[in-house]
């Protein structure tokens, strides 16, 4: 039995009972990539037929009834047309079979029905075969996620559950201010007097949970939220994380990688903390005086021979580390100065381009890995920063040519997200064979949002005036309508499926960034 299928209780949609459906005996097992030489009909042609009784019980792991392929077939006769690029396996295939190639083949198999038929009724896809955003289902799923974060398994990720849920709520246009009081109460017990936030009461401060906590407080807003942050203690604690090679560790005595650099600089810039190292910072012994000392050079050394960016020098390139490094460089200065100076941009673009798969359309995180919805942000979020580095400073959205395209295939990403990542009962997932969670809901929606807006840098050089990291706050955005490839007249996503825009560096709503920066940049001292 194919790995994507398992026995589940019967669940039938009305369309499966239509008299026009393909006879059950024409529906066969799919046992290998080799049978998927083209879309649609080849799913119906195989020599390993299964009995009707067995077919009645076969439902894919993600809940999609394989019988829905008959709906696909009907769509392709007269319904929405999905381009071959998203419905046809790659024409050139390496003949060497490995565990990796088998996993890739299985992934294509599980995605194709969703991409060309969506596994849904004809009413739930638009004229281009793109499913609608199941907004209400995702909101309900997130309510469950945030309400259940009190359970023991969440003990080590409590601030993260808040951040993922609140960011996803924001993307969906929900009012998150109602969570203000509860967020303050939850995070107040995570904050340590010695600085920083742990995952829960009495837990060691960690820069990842501190990042999630600070951003969560910024999202819900209100003076009580932001004022509860012990900025002086946080500054002193961050000083302990600064390393002699320019980077940051994740906690005192913990591992060092680019997450530490991005999370630390996000906190420092958003809260307008002094850039001068605290007097007792260990790296003062190495001659460092500022959090910025050696930092861009450290990030530069994380770029690998492939062009991607690894967690630390001489390691493997990874999409999430790429975003952390790019966003951190964009905190340190204008993108067209920092990215061009410290990275081999053409090589990075080449590596990032290789992360997008066809026919799936989504991104993978590493070479020879599978597509995964969360990289819609980790890789997808790199593109606006790179495009800003290429275009330079844009005084306003009006200067952006309407025909300005994208460095990646946005249609492919949109189709992957809306066709493959939406779980039937709400929430977003890695791929059809997996279950949804708050993490993937957050980052998959963030990736979808980034296809709906232009983000552009609109600053001018500012190093001598104001806060040295002001360039991070000199970005703007404008709405765009994702369109069919090569057809400017056809919008790919329906208007009701537009999301809220997020700041491309801080990955929270623009208003939350402005509110925090506005409050703390006015303060003198702690
Ligand atoms: Zn993932």
Compact description:
With 526 residues, the chain is mainly alpha-helical. It has helices spanning 52-57, 69-78, 99-116, 135-147, 158-171, 180-188, 207-220, 223-227, 231-241, 258-270, 295-301, 319-332, 335-342, 345-353, 375-378, 382-391, 410-420, 438-450, 510-521, and strands at 5-7, 58-60, 453-457, 475-479.
List the helices and strands and how they pair.
Blueprint: E1 5-7, H1 52-57, E2 58-60, H2 69-78, H3 99-116, H4 135-147, H5 158-171, H6 180-188, H7 207-220, H8 223-227, H9 231-241, H10 258-270, H11 295-301, H12 319-332, H13 335-342, H14 345-353, H15 375-378, H16 382-391, H17 410-420, H18 438-450, E3 453-457, E4 475-479, H19 510-521
Helix pairs in contact: 4-5, 5-7, 5-18, 6-7, 7-10, 10-12, 12-13, 13-16
This protein binds zinc ion.
Polypeptide structure, described:
With 526 residues, the protein is mainly alpha-helical. The chain has helices spanning 52-57, 69-78, 99-116, 135-147, 158-171, 180-188, 207-220, 223-227, 231-241, 258-270, 295-301, 319-332, 335-342, 345-353, 375-378, 382-391, 410-420, 438-450, 510-521; strands at residues 5-7, 58-60, 453-457, 475-479. The protein contains 19 helices and four strands. The protein has a two-stranded antiparallel ribbon with strand order 1-2. Helix 6 runs antiparallel to helix 7 (207-220) and helix 13 (335-342) packs across helix 16. Bound molecules: zinc ion.
